[in-house]
Each structure stands twice: as C-alpha cells, then as structure tokens.
Amino acid sequence: MSILQSIMETAAQFLPDKKPDVMKADEETYVGHARTRVDGPAKVRGEARFTAEFQIANLTHAVIVHGTIAKGKISKLETEEASRAPGVLAVITHENVPKMKAPPSVDLSNMGKGFALSNLPIMQSAEMHWDGEPVAVVVAETLEQAEHAAHLVRAEYQLESADVSFEGMKPKAVMPHDVLGEPPEITIGDVEKGMAEGDTRIEQVYRTPRYNHNAIEPHANIASWNEDGSVEVFDATQSVNLTAHTIAWVFGLKRDQVQVVAPFVGGGFGGKVGLWNNIALCIAAAKVVNRPVKLALSREGVYRVIGGRTIAEQHVGLAARKDGKLTALMHTGMTATVLSGRYAEQCTFPPRHLYASPNMYIGQKVVYLDTVANTWMRAPGESIGTFALESAMDELAHELRMDPIELRKINEPEKDPTKNHPFSSRKLVEAYRRGAEKFGWSARKAEPRSQRDGKWLVGQGVATAYYPFLRFPAKARLRICIDGTAVVQVPAAEMGMGTATVQIQHAADRLGLHAHQVSFQYGDSRLPDTPVMAGGSNQTATIFAAVHAAVDEAIGELLKLANKRADSPLKGAKADEVEARHGGVFRTKAPEQGETYANVLQKAGVPFVEVETSSAMPLETMKYSMASYGAQFCEVRVHEETGEVRVSRWLGSFDCGTIVNPKTATSQLRGGIIMGIGMALTEETLFDERRGRIMNPSLAEYHVPVNLDVPHIEIIYNDIPDEHAPSGARGIGEIGITGAAAAIANAVFNATGKRVRDLPITLDKLM
User: Fold this and answer.
1) What is the spatial distance between Cα 223 and Cα 243, in angstroms, rounded to a whole number?
2) CA–CA separation, 689 and 687 (whole Å)
3) What is the sign of the dihedral through the CA atoms of 64, 69, 71 and 72?
4) What DSSP character marks residue 441?
5) Rounded to the nearest 5°, which phi and psi values hold at 446?
6) Most buried residue, 34, 344, 352, 480, by most Cβ within 10 Å?
7) Rounded distance, CA 278 to CA 657, Å?
8) Count of other CB atoms within 10 angstroms of residue 131
9) Residue 86 CB: number of other CB atoms within 10 A?
C-alpha cells in the first residue's frame, strides 16, 4: 500500500463526527461558546494515528548515527561491520548520500518558499559543525536491526577548535542586523539622565539557561518515492506547506512533486517548524533503498539534531520617582545562535511595548556558537524577556514600597511606547483588576517572610503576560455542496490545541450553518498552497481571515447563479446587500427574502460551488499596536529547611480579545502556564562547555513538570473583542507561558526574601 492509499483510508480523521448539533437554542453563534474537540473521540479511542504509527507496505526503518565532536572533520568512518549486520539494507554517509542543496534560511519577507533554522548542507561532506550532527544513517528491515547496526558504525575525527562557551564568547558579542525584522537597538530620550533623575533605581542581571523541546511526540517521518520522481512524506510538522516547499528546494523538485501529510501532531511548540536534518535524511534514505523508510527520532535524538531555546543574559535598569512613575527603562539582552542560522531570540521585545517611560534604551546582541541551531520555543523571546522585565518591576515595587499592580497601572502607556501607534485594544488594567479580585490579592502581605504555614513559607507574586498579535496572508478553499453542507480546506496543523474545532465554529457562523454541516480538512500539502504555520499564535486569526474572504467570494458565486433565474428572491441583489444565515443567502434589509444554498444549487443544476481565495495583507498590524495581554497570579510555598518550592495556587487573567472556544482556550493557557512552571523551577539543558555536548538528553534527567508540580490553574478572560482582529480574536497559544516564571520568582521572594535572578529556582539557591 502506498502512502497515498494510506492517506485516503484515514481521510475521516480530517472530518468532524457527523452528530446532531449541540448548540443551545438561545445561542445565535458558535464563536464564543465552549465545544468539545471534534477529534477528541478518535484520540480517546486510539484511532487518531500520528506519523510514526502509520503502517506502510514494504516499510523499512532508519536510525541516525550522531557525531560526537563540536567541530572538525570525519577522518575515518568504519561501516563494513554495520553493513553486514542482519537485515541492513544500506549505511548512508557523506560519501554515498544523494546530492542535496543546502536548505534556505528563514526569510520573513518570503515565508512561502520554506526554510530551515540552519542553512548548512545536510551530510554532504566530512565537515562537522556541532556535537550530535548526523554522520550516518542505517536502514534495515526492522527498527531493532537498524539500532543494532547503528552501534557498529565507528567514526574517527580530526578535531578543530570550537566556540561552545557562552561565557567565553561574550566579549565577542555583536549586534545582529535585525531581531525578527525589528531594529536591534532603540533609543528614546536619554536613559542615563533618566536613571539619574529617578528617586529609586534598580539595575540587575537576569539569566535563563538553555531549554529543550520535549513534545509528547518525538519528531518522526515516513518517506516514499514514486516511479514518476515525486515523493510522499508523513512528517510531524507544524506546517505541511512550508515543509513541502523546503523539501522541493533541497531535492531539486517541483513543488507539486512533493506531498507532505500531518494528520495529527503530538505537540510542537516551535520545535517542529522548519526542516531539520532528520526529514531530509529520511527522504534521502528512501531514495537509496528504493522503499518507504520510517525515521523516528529517539528522545535523545531530538536533543542532538533539533534545536531548543537559547541561553540568555539580560540586563534591566529601571528608575522611578517616589510616585512610581518611570523616568528610565533600560533593557539589554545577549543570546546565542549559530552562524548558519543567525536567529536572535527576541528577549527585548516586551520592554518595547509594555511600559511608558520618557527615556528608554533597548539593545540586543548575539554570540555565535558551534552548536545545533537554536530555534523557536513557545513564546520565543517574550517568555524569557518577561522573566527579566517583570522580575525587575517587582524589585522596583519592593524598593518603592508600592503594590506591584499599582506600579504597573501608573506606568500603563496611552499608546505604544516605541512604535507610537495606538493600541487596537488593550484592556490590561481590567485584566489586573479582575484577576486581583478573584485571586484575593488585597490580602497579600507585602513584607517578605511574613506568611507561614508550619515549616512552609508562603508568598504571592504577580507578573504581566504579553505576546504580540500576528496574522499572515493565506488562502482557503471553500466548497458549498448541493446537500447544504460545506467543506473548508486549509493546510493547517492540529497539535492538540483544537484547530479543527474552532475553525468549524467560525466557518459555521460565517456560513449560517449548523456545526455538523461543516467539515474542516487540514494537514495535507495538496490543499491550497499557502504558508499557514501553527506558530507565533497566528494560525487561528490567519485562517479566520482567509475563510472570511472565501465565504464572501462563494456568496458572490451563489448570487451569480441565483441572478440567472427570474423567480429567485435574490434577483438583482448585490453582495453588500445580503448575508449568510439559516443555511443560505438572504437579503439584509428584507430577512424573509432569500434562498438556501441547497435551493440555489439544485435549481442551477450544479452539485457545488467552490472558491479558493486569499485574505488581505495584515494592514491592521501596521496601523495599530496589537497584542494579547494578561496578569499572572501565583502562590508558592517554600520549605524553610529544604528549600523545596511548591506552586500551590494559580490564576491567570487574560485580555486576548474574543475567546472563540473557552474550553480549548483554557486548555491552551493552562498548558502555557505549566511550561512556565517548568521554566521557572525544573527545566534546564545541562551543557558541557568543554565539548559542546548536551549532558541530560532524556526525560529522566531533563525535568519537565509532572502532575504533583502543578496546582489547579484557574483561567478568566476579559472576553472583549478586538475590532481590528478577525472575529475580534487575538492569539492565545503562547501568551500563557509569558510572565509565568517571573510570577513564580516574585512569589518566592515574597515568601523567603531571597531574589533569584538565575533560572531555574533550585534548592541550592534558596538554602
């Protein structure tokens, strides 16, 4: 069975259950109301297959052999013993791998062409660039045979001096050309003068370690070449189309010769955006053995070839008058990246938009290291940037003897502090008010170490959450059928956040249909060729705008059909005079005059109308400062003798525009907060700065939060629409992690009187 046949067998996974509509009688819309995920039953029953679970006829298995030096050349590769091992079909090295072009780098001005986080050629020479880089791929009949043979490959190296120490390279830090398209340096007023004018000043350095991706589903691929030279790929990816474009580039194919499918993705968080070595090597291996190949990375393999969050050092200086009004804000950051990727993680973005100050200096530098390329990780930049800035704001509030919330309210800007744009909608103060009331903030004692429960010191902390609104132009295909149903097609990614569910809700509202009459097809690069990506919290708004445009165009096509009939109640109607409701098109000013979709199509004698159209450019983001905001409230307990920290209570109060589906939104925000708990207390990639090697590449030693680490997390919303965002909704996927680490650090200070500025907050730092 070919991959394509297997896809057709599982097509039902792309559709919602055809069950009776459960919308309440008094509800006029689906958007804004909680609905269970349409893919939930399939996942609960184990019917939802993820990439590594597909069974393809004649399938073989591949395992990567990782290099063990940070920089140098392979001087000798012994592969004969591995080649003779049982079941082995091929041992692929730089000497016999198919020719591949170096992948393109990220280009924000042309995302549609695809990209990788490193533009290094993939196993095309003996050169070694980081510890863990693939030196061979073993393909065998079974996974066990491939793993056994991989251990028989022996490599010798010619070592070269490598730059792997962040501390050692700090003197050579340079300012990047840009930080995700924004200037790396911003100066407003005179920050030194402003610091001198303040009655109270704080200047501190905040450090965050490397963090690695640990999605529940490790990266996996299945690749199969067809006789016509095309290739079919299952990939655990956050963007099937971007991946398809990148594969076409690397292998010198036309775009329509590549099909990428990702029915379900078991978490991504940024680590499954862009092309990594494993994808290209799986496809190359399938070409060598001329059979389908599965390459599923082990957990350690993910650490070796997939990038994570950079190490960072941030310097924050704040000065304020006695009344709390800022006179100066200075925030500089230094992160690590690689020459082949040059991704400067945007840790200095939060201070550009959060607080008003007449004098500001914001600057960012990078150091270049010989490591695996760093990449996006949930709320890249903003998560670590808010840790530094929001910790500093708490320190300033303590020095001023002022409530931390009051300090933030005093410095709430009327317009964007650095862009000078008006806010599209910013109700952060309201989120703080509602959150403080619900959390019981007024009962907090400001003096550190003033709350106790036996041997446990108790403290509360708060911090601002912030993540920018993003939207990209995108295409959607819409088919309205003669039976009154509709199908929306967009190559979106479903990573567990409820994409299909909210898109069905939105499309049903736009079309005036019941939810069970709408299908949403996604996860296949054969769908409209558009750079939709589940990242940057943009996917929901991006697709909403595309679907809105498609509905408008489809109604125009239906009006053309209706206008051909003299007896149509829509005869002569123009697009701006009608609206979609009650399963059809009706005049806006004469609600009783109209026709159902089924009636229009039946009388026209056509089975369906189908349109494919693009949304407009995101001009709203050029006119307004747009972002989601929130207030993170937490309570911690710190054992006085052991230094053990327990988060005992959490409330997140968010301002994200319209909440499309409170059920899935709450899940997303809780997930982000849990990642923030890990960021603050347990997670740290241990890195050997002598060899450039990750030392804890497993879940046994890289500690993510588990059930006992997580309290009940309460989520509340303003739920005030942003009139400049599609359907009033802004992104929610990443904001949950922002401010979370700072809220914990601030609560720990309130409990113990000890300020930890170097994450994670471990026992030794509190003893």
Assistant:
1) 13
2) 6
3) negative
4) G
5) -70, -30
6) 480
7) 39
8) 23
9) 11
Pairing relationship of beta strands 578-581 and 584-587 according to DSSP bridges: antiparallel
| Cβ pair 358, 188 in contact under 8 A | yes
Any idea which residue has 């590594």 for tokens? 52
Active-site positions? 734
Q: Kindly state the tokens that stand for 529.
A: 């060729």
Cβ-based burial of 587 (10 A; exposed 0-12, middle 13-18, buried ≥19): middle
- Give the amino acid at 735: I
CA 230 to chain CA centroid, nearest Å: 30
What separation, in Å, do the N-terminal and C-terminal C-alpha atoms of the chain show? 61
DSSP per position, 54-79: ---TT-EEEEEEEP--SSEEEEEEE-
Structure tokens that stand for 428 in this block: 């952060």
How confident is the model at residue 17, as a pLDDT?
46
Q: What residue type is assigned to position 495 of the chain?
A: M
Distance separating alpha carbons of residues 132 and 128, to the nearest angstrom = 9
| Number of other CB atoms surrounding residue 144 within 10 Å | 13
Q: How far, in Å, CA of 364 to CA of 312, rounded?
A: 11
Q: Which of 147, 143, 154 lies closest to 67, judged by CA?
A: 154
Query: In what order do the strands lie in the sheet containing 200-208?
Result: 185-188, 360-368, 326-337, 312-320, 200-208
Mean pLDDT by 10 residues, the chain (767 residues): 45 44 59 96 95 95 98 98 98 98 88 90 98 98 98 98 98 97 97 98 98 98 98 98 97 98 96 97 98 98 98 98 98 98 97 98 98 98 98 98 98 98 98 98 98 98 98 97 98 96 98 98 96 94 98 98 96 96 96 96 98 97 98 98 97 98 98 98 97 97 97 98 98 97 99 98 95
E-strand stretches of 283-374: 293-296, 312-320, 326-337, 360-368
Facing residues of 442 across strands?
Answer: none
Residue type at 369? L
* List of residues 6+ apart from 397 with CB closer than 8 A: 324, 403, 404, 406, 407
Cβ pair 345, 312 in contact under 8 A: yes
CB atoms within 10 A of CB 327: 22
Cis peptide before 20 (omega within 30 of 0): no
Contact of 143 with 63, CB cutoff 8 Å: yes
- The whole-angstrom separation of Cα 296 and Cα 187 is 48
Cβ atoms within 10 Å, residue 366 = 24
- Whole-model pTM: value is 0.96
Bridge-based pairing state of the strands 594-596 and 584-587: antiparallel
Name residue, tokens 């920018």.
Answer: 468
